[in-house]
Amino acid sequence: MRGILPFLVVLVAIAFLTKVDLFFYLVYALFGIYFLGRLWARRSLAAVDLYRQHDRRVFLGQSFPVEVKVANKGWLPVLWLRLGDTAPGELVMGGAFRQVISLRPRERLELSYTLHGRRRGYYRFGPLLTLGGDLLGTRTYERRCDEDDFVIVYPRIVALRELGFPSQSPSGTLPSQQRLFEDPSRIQGVREYQPGDSLRRMDWKTSARVGSLQVRRFEPSIALETAIFLNLAGDDYPVRSRYSATELGIVVAASVATHLIEKRQAVGLATNGRDPLSDATPSFPLRKGREHLMHMLDLLARIEVASETEPLPFLDLVNRESLGLPWGSTVVMVTAKEVENMLGVMLGLRRRGLSIILALLCPGHEFALTVQKADQIGVRALRIGSEQELDVWR
Amino acid sequence: MSYRQAGPSTGHRVGNWWIENLLRPAMVAGMMVCLAAPVVRTLEWMLPGWSGAYLLVFAFLASMEGILSERVLRRRLLSAWEYLGSRLAEMLVLLVLLKVANHISLGWDQLVADARMWFTDPSSFISNLDLFTAILVVPLWAMSIYLGRMVKGLDVEGERLAPPEDKTSIEYYLWMTQPPAVQDRQERLDSLAETFIWGGVAILLASLMLHILVPSTGIPAMAILLYFALGVTFLSQARFTVTYAGWQVQGIPIQASIGRRWLLWGALFLVGVVAVVLLLPTHYTMGPLQAIMGLYQLLIGGLMFLVSLIMFLVTLPFLFLFSRGEPAQRPQLPQFALPGEEQMTNGAAPPWLEILVSAVFWLIVISIVGYALIRFLRDRLGVLDESEEAAASWWGRLLLWLRGLWRQWLAWRRGVETRIRERRAERRAERAAQVRERRFLSLRRLPPRELVRYFYLSMARRAGHVGLQRAPGQTPYEYRESLDRQLPDLEPELHGLTDAFVVARYSPQPLEKEDADAVKPIWQRIKTALRRRRAGRAEQSPSKE
Fold first, then answer.
1. pTM (2 decimals)?
2. Partner A, chain B 137-196, Cβ-Cβ below 8 Å
3. CATH number of the domain within which A81 lies
4. Whose CB has fewer CB within 10 Å in chain B, the N or C terminal residue?
């Protein structure tokens, strides 16, 4: 319809020459169709309100619906509207969301599509894009609805039952009215079985001897505060297994933190990875509660391996962040392998009354030696090469 | 919820059968008839006593036949020679039928008399009328075939527009290598639009010539209006087809009702535009400057009159007050002399109306021409681009300055709108705060978010009366769990109300009135159950005593 405007000018000239009403009406009608058609398309598109609704936090492997709500707030119908959402590519399967609709005046529509939490991470949504046009296709109008929207895919959380942490604080730091946790490695005695007692606590030998069911009583002396240190300095990991090992480290940290928080213990977390939302070294002090766990999982979801920038050396991180830990706390160090001076740092921590668990993700051939050396200073070293190896804590 | 789930999306078919196979060919044939109308009038003037109405009907039928037969021939996949032969045979039949039709207007007796002459004088077989009508009908028929072919090319038939899912299949390869569906259609559509405009030029020029040469015949207004109405509707439909094909190529799901809505809203829009157009003036009694100056004087005069009227009304009580019982001298209402009033004669329109009509007329015409010029300069010459080249010339700078002024105006307007919106929001918030402060709440006046909060807090208060207080520091979900244990029958209602409260309290998303209304029955059920429980407790208490 590019020729319509010159044609209109010619028509105006003819109308003035002949002074016939019909030609004037024709000019008005054609111009009205052209101009008002564009105005209609623009105004109706401006009156469209849209936003998306979805779960902001999902677990790995979980599929979740994203609802796109479209509302025509105006009194003009929307002839056609092409909607498109710029969802994070890692979560999309089978193409991005797009849809063509038309809207009656004041009509509201709810569209939906599904995203899949296929990979841990913090994902930002792009704008919702709309495109509309007029009846004769002389012009299209585009609108972007920018919204600060994101989704966090949590790392895999492996269910753990017993971490077998060594006990250091017999009386604990909890108020007396709160339930104490028991250390299964320290048997205090036996008592009569009561309904609800776990079968794992049964003392079968004593039961046989006494003739009635007996259960073990444990000392209420498990370590109550645990700091997790996660090494995400890319250079500390072998290039070949860097991705899988760091991801496993994150799984270990997330699983341990979840397990301990569910046991109502205080947990802290520090890592030398890169937080895309902040320049500071990501760390959380010792806290209890689900909200604290959510913050830690959020961080573990979005944390990235620090390889391009110069990361804080892991041992420096441990030294710095362990300063405020109370006596008797447990330190879980999740790293690739034993490095120079690691035993010295761990010895220092032991002397400050801290218990240490060293989880090595790719220890190599020297693991047996590391275990021996760690054992000498009272540190428990574990090799966790896969999620299955987390069974030591199940 | 007030949001409706989107309906099902369509498959690969565009529009309806009757739109593609009947409505669009009929539109094209109708346009052909409109093009023929001025020529038929000329023939009627040249051949006194001859009426060409039947010829218009014949042209319509011939055009329809041409378009529909084109579809049949395309389906048969004929060779060029076969196609040409078929078309020639068709044309011969058409001419014979045209001759018969011509004799209908002359009468059967004339046909019999002419038939006798054909054997003695074969040259008399083709009369002047036959010649003229054939010269008119055959090009129209050919044009219809051409347009029919183009229209058919817009339809989606037999092509695979959406990509096959399996990207390793042969079908996907064939889809990838097929001719560009949208681009081809766009070119066809542009060509159709140009043909429509040239047809418009032709019909206007023919009508104009007829008007000049034979003023007594008048202009075929109906044919011209019908031509443009059909043309615009047809182009709108063609645009829909091309756009639709584009969406299909991209594999975008499409709402099923979009085709029907396009047709309906397009028709309503055209009717609306025509209705508005009929209200606009088509004549003027004064030139543009005179009209605009007249309008200016009219406005100033009107304003002066209003000011004088207000002054008069203000001073009127004082005049009565200070008259001391004597009959006050009646103040004179200021007289407002309209420009050109002295020229008013009996039976003519009032001068102010003529000024107004002329001013509106000139404003519309100037706007149309100005807009067309600006668009033309921008689209074809690119002079309104904000480039250095455009700024180099004085008129380029002038246009840029005007554009800057326009943008400033838009920015100022937006700012004012924003301030008004903010002020309104503040007032609403103040009003809501005032409502909260009142002892007796009017639920109708509460905004949706406040209403949901009220429902929840009311529930918590009533639950407190029956010993289920919400502990300090207890989150809504924790409180819900504790209530669930005590009121297991109300579990779904408690979940619904708690979820709605959490959204109303913490979510930034807008909450509609319908959402709040949906919560009300839930709240009422909980309220009834709590009231019953409270009554039960009250009955138990005296019995214990």
1. 0.66
2. 189-190, 193-194
3. 2.60.40.10
4. C
